[in-house]
Amino acid sequence: MRLAKSEWFTAKEIEQYQLVHLKNLVAFAAQRVPFWRQRIAADAIQRAETLQEALNALPILSRAALRDNLAGLRAPDLPPGHVAAGERTSSGSTGMVVAVATSNVMLTWQSALAFRVQLWAGRDLQQKIALIRKYQIG
Fold it and tell me: d(Cα 120, Cα 95) in Å, to the nearest integer?
C-alpha cells in the first residue's frame, strides 16, 4: 500500500519521505553497524532540514572500502521483520568484485519495484516474458 500511495507523491513529499527514511537508516547504521560507528556524522544528518543537506553529510564509500570491510558493514542484529537473505555481488567489470548483504525486506522491495516498472511500461501481465539471468557455476 505504501508503494501505491507514494506513486502519487509530489516532489516535495518524495523528498520529505526520503529524508525521514534516510535519517532512520543513518541512526540504525550509527548504532548497529561497526564500520559506520566512527565514520558517519549521524548528528549532522539528524539535524538536516533538507534531503540535499543530509546527503551532503554522508561519507563516500569506496569500492575498496566495501570490499575490505564486508563483515564490519553488516549489523550483527537486523531490525524486527528482517531476515538475512544472502549476498549480491557485482560483475567485477571494473576489476574489483564487491558484495553486499541482502535481506528479505530488500528482496520484497526489489520485486515490488520491478512489478511497478512493468505496470508503468504498459506490459500485458497475461503474456509470457523471457528473462536472461547469469548464474555462477559452483
Answer: 35
Instruction: Give the number of domains in the chain.
Output: 2
DSSP letters for 31-67: HH-HHHHTT--HHHHHH-SSHHHHHHTSPP--HHHHH
Asked if 68 and 129 sit in the same domain, the reply is yes
Matching residue, cell 535519517: 23
Task: Provide mean pLDDT across the span 28-41.
Answer: 93
Does residue 75 sit in the same domain as residue 29? no
Other CB atoms within 10 A of residue 96 CB: 12
Range of the domain at 54: 1-59
Written as nine digits, the cell of 81 is 521483520
Q: Given this model, what pLDDT does residue 133 score?
A: 81
